[in-house]
Input
Amino acid sequence: MGRKAGLWCALMSGVWMASGAPALAADTAAVIETYADVAHAKYEDALTTAEALEKAIDALIAKPTEDNLKAARAAWLAARDPYQQTEGYRFGNPIVDDWEGKVNAWPLDEGLIDYVAEAYGTESDDNPLYTANVIANTSITFGGETIDTSKITKELLADKLHESADSEANVATGYHAIEFLLWGQDLNGTGPGAGTRPATDYDTATCTHGNCDRRAEYLKIAASLLVDDLKEMVGNWTADGAARKALRDAGGNGALSMMLTGLGSLSYGELAGERMKLGLILHDPEEEHDCFSDNTQNSHYYDEVGMIAIYEGSYKRIDGSVVKGASLSELVKAASPDADKGVKAAMANAEAKLRLLKDTADSGKMKYDQMIGDGNAEGNKIVQDAIDGLIAQTRAVEKAVDALKIGALAIEGSDSLDNPTAVQ
Output
């Protein structure tokens, strides 16, 4: 979707259009609007696919067959791609950061929610609800407080259980809680295979693992909450939404800093560091982002696709239409063509490295949890090359910031990159 001509300004850059008029470089107000338009479109696509997931879950609960479970899993996988493309809006936008934990918090102690294998253990020094198993219990007690869990409600999951007991591992809502309920634990370590939860876990007539009615209730409520939360974020990016208004109110340099902080922090501390390098250092599949479904290669790849869309001000929607307008790239190019070329080259390189990771996993040759396994030199290199590409991308973004003269960014760090001995 193009921006109106009134939102553009001519900047003398030495480049001329065929008509003889100077080429137009985007002004900051136009870039803000495109950035917000792309955000709105991405969150709308995330909402649309979450609504499809909710319908597939309803069908599974109504008729718990393996085919319906397979369809619900496919709907979950389809819902992840557009959502992951929104993650570049984190870190720089407080409204997104304050909200994000409700929908994409990880890793999670799945024993809070449901049954787990014996190897999971029975207790954790850091989490009193490590094996609370809300699905199997009508009340849970910790810290001298008893919570009535006899009825599984949105309030129970979102307000009383999610990140309760001062533990971020108590993830009761969002994509990963739903993922666990659809796949179950992945007990394969760094070997091949995802979770194998049977459809009979939802069949009250031939119930496996007990409490099939409560498990279905939990899954249904979690799916409904995800839709609710995404509707909220879509609203935040409408023409008069709070997130769009916050950008406008931040002023030109403030808004640009918010945008570029999101790109730099996702690229460096979050994706290269916490989601990739940490698992590679520890060779631990528990640090895999979509660990139950073996979908991590897509989560990582679509983070990068989303960052490119933000920088270039162009997003292809799930219906094939394109939202496009004034871009960060144009602003950077007007200030320094070399800096813009550097960002684009770094993004292309990071995308290629993550594409190789994705293609290798999608082919069935080697899934992400296998790639990070100890002694897997080929897989480790694929992951490390992608990490290196993301770090180089961050450095390029920092040069773009210097070119725009908007001041230093507070880029999210990671011990995994900055102090690896602290996590070994």
About this structure: The chain has 13 helices and six strands. Confidence is low (pLDDT under 50) at residues 1-24. Residues 242-282 form the longest helix (41 residues).
